[in-house]
Amino acid sequence: MTSFFEEETTLFVDLILPVPVPSLFTYRVPRELSGLVKVGARVIVQFGKKRVITAVIAKIHSTPPPQYQAKYIMELLDEQPIVTNHQLELFKWVAEYYLCNIGEVLNVALPAGLKITSQSRIQLNPEFEYEDLLTDQEAIVIEEIKKHQTLSYEEVERLLQKSNITSIIKSLVGKRAVILYEEVKERYKPKVVKKIRLTSAYVSNAALSALAGSLEKNQKQQDILLKYLSFIPVYNNPDLNQKGLDKSIFGGDDSISASSLNTLIKKGIFEQFEIFISRFEEIPAGSTTAITLTETQTEAVAQIQEHFKHKEVVLLHGITGSGKTEVYIDLIRQVLESGSQVLFLLPEIALTTQIVVRLKKVFGDVMGIYHSKFSDNERVEVWKGILDGKFQFVVGVRSAIFLPFDNLGLIIVDEEHESSYKQHDPAPRYNARDVAVIMSYMHNGKTLLGSATPSLESYYHATSGRYGLVEMKQRFGNAALPTFELIDIKKEKKQKKMKNEFSSVLIEHLQHNLKHKEQTILFQNRRGYSPYMQCEECNWISECANCDVSLTYHMKVRELRCHYCGHKEEVPRTCPNCGSPKVRTIGFGTEKIEDEINLMFPEARVQRMDMDTTRAKNAYQQIIQDFEVGGIDILVGTQMVSKGLDFDNVSIVGIFDADRMINFPEFRATERAFQMLTQVSGRAGRRADKPGKVLIQTANPGQKLLERVVLNDYIGMYESEIGEREKYNYPPFSRLIKVTVKHIDEATANRAAKVLAEKLAGNLGLSRVLGPQPPLVERVRNLFLFDILIKLEREKINFKAAKSFIQEKVIDILTDKTLKSIQVVIDVDCL
Ligand code: ADP
Ligand code: ZN
Ligand code: ZN
């Protein structure tokens, strides 16, 4: 059948679905939407039989898919794109580089609030009449539906106080009593304020006088009018009426004045209206005293700009306390003035509140903040704020690189060496620092990497000329770097001077500091009370049922916890194996340090800062504030205390267990330990008049790495390490790809990993494929793991081709019928 209308071409859209599928999906555009679809806009589609999901349009065309009948899109959500072309390009790059699906990138990029969810709801079947067929519980459900028209699953669960209601719902459907349907709803809700104002008829002085007179008989209504006028002096300036007054000023909805107010609204004297407001506190820019850059800082800014004339990336290597933030601020201001956007990345925002507050004071409302402790709604507001030009400048954590920028002039990656820029799970397993470099390139912008302890990779690129290098070697205000003391705990133990985990030297310094009201930071990079419990009689050790690790003892909550899978157990009173009461804790974490200080110095105000004490949204900020105003004497923490904190009054930093970091069996251990120790130490003595001291407890004070930390000899560390890396062909001389094979059965996992490694080595060469071997923790969440490490030289090898070969071989394994339910994870540039 040919008809006249077929002349008009049918439109199709290729969609990115936020699910792990390898390709785009083609859907058909209903005729009424054909003029409205745009690349980057969201649509709702049916995916599979049951799911309704949000997808983003990547392409519009008129070619029907050859293999399948395209379904219609159900709804178009946006008139204007919410994903920019730059983003689509970036998502594609990330998917290709990190060997994952573009849908997985979209899924991480899009805040949950922009993804529509569908919710099953239950509604009465209008044709239902056999009420006597119902069981008691079913009857309760039906009664409730009659009251509310419809119910969600959760509402039924609450009603019946049961968590599994599927059988009841099934039965109701079977009896044709109810109908199920999907309700699609947008999660993002703008924040709304209800306001009132005078209707236009009353916005003149004459009308107002007349009104006041006519209300004389009604005291309450007159009060409302007068209150309104006291806030909004319409007499003086009629324009003020337009903005109105928050309705809440007159009390809640059931207050006495509310009813009078409603009468006034009904009479047409006042009118009610709503406005959308931002969830973010409005701070005007420039609400801070201007800072003059020092000569060193001015020089650094000039050098960075000079490098940017020829180079895409500059590394700013400035020691702790050198004043890098002010250098960033100067550059950001210039780029914003030129009309381009700026992105400032931080490892973990919560951990750097001080910088954020400083930036907010300088840049005010043009600055958006984006991090993991924000609610969905807040994230959507940042996203939309960038799209509509409100936020020209964003400070955020790694996922902020996926925000909808369209004109980035500069990306700053502060503390660029931090491993938290790398996402481990789920895919995309990206490193935001590296993606930032590509992204600036796509926008024709520049990248500035900053650190006191650069990653070997970045420093290598900077000294080999690929990046520009700018150094700041003095602390601001000529404050001295702290002095060090290495405390030999082996010796102290022999002389019986140690008190539990504390050396006598550290105790003396703590006493001195408490007496002089100066603050101390104590660093132990392990949370909980102790990493395991052990029976003295039979050597039983607390172990996780699902993972191959010991359970950490948490004293306050009286629990044993697995730090890998979250498994929790009660603390046994006696040994579960032999019944002996002699169960003791071994090793120590932050909680034990805190406990011991409380025992030794009951007068000291101690606060612990680790993942366990900072789960709540503002917990971290609260601790920082308390410490800042002197409400805390001793701050005990994990690596959280090492990041970017800037306090005036910290004169002692104590470091426990330095050897564990240094001896970690991993090729980056030396680099990492140097970075960690230097960063923590950098929290001490940041004022010129208050020199700081760092006390490191170690069993081996003579080791080279500690000497380098003490001398702040980054270059020495770099040179010896880079030699090793070159010799053994590790990054930056090669790229590493880790392929992890997982299976519930150890032998199957091992066999699959061996087969895979052989296939890989067959093509890539034996020297490039290491393993398989079990990782440090061999079993996690009941899955046995085997790692294959692939080293690919930077030169000589076609990285792209090698990667697609690896991907092919992995797919072979995944689709091998003899290896049921095998899982394989590919991590490109694993850390
Ligand atoms: P870094 O990030 O390099 O460790 P910061 O940027 O935190 O160092 O600066 C260290 C301290 O010096 C901060 O308290 C900062 O306010 C102060 N500071 C830096 N530059 C200046 C300046 N030009 N004028 C006044 N104070 C400054
Ligand atoms: Zn025992
Ligand atoms: Zn576990």
Defining key terms:
binds zinc ion; 6-stranded parallel β-sheet; single chain; 24 helices; GIY-YIG endonuclease; 831 residues; 7-stranded parallel β-sheet; alpha/beta; disordered N terminus; binds adenosine-5'-diphosphate
Write the layout of secondary structure elements.
Blueprint: E1 12-16, E2 25-28, E3 42-47, E4 51-61, E5 75-76, H1 85-97, H2 102-109, E6 117-124, H3 136-148, E7 150-152, H4 153-160, H5 166-174, E8 178-185, E9 191-198, H6 205-214, H7 219-231, E10 245-246, H8 256-266, E11 270-277, H9 295-308, E12 313-318, H10 324-337, E13 341-345, H11 353-363, E14 367-370, H12 376-387, E15 393-396, E16 408-414, H13 432-443, E17 446-451, H14 456-463, E18 468-472, E19 483-488, H15 489-494, H16 504-515, E20 519-523, E21 532-535, E22 552-554, E23 559-561, E24 568-570, E25 583-586, H17 590-600, E26 606-609, H18 619-628, E27 634-637, E28 650-655, H19 658-662, H20 669-681, E29 693-698, H21 704-710, H22 714-727, E30 734-743, H23 746-764, E31 769-773, E32 779-780, E33 783-793, H24 799-814, E34 823-828
Parallel strand pairs: 12-17, 12-18, 13-15, 13-16, 14-15, 16-17, 19-29, 20-27, 20-28, 26-27, 28-29
Antiparallel strand pairs: 1-2, 1-4, 3-4, 3-5, 6-7, 6-8, 9-10, 9-11, 21-25, 22-23, 23-24, 30-33, 30-34, 31-33, 32-33
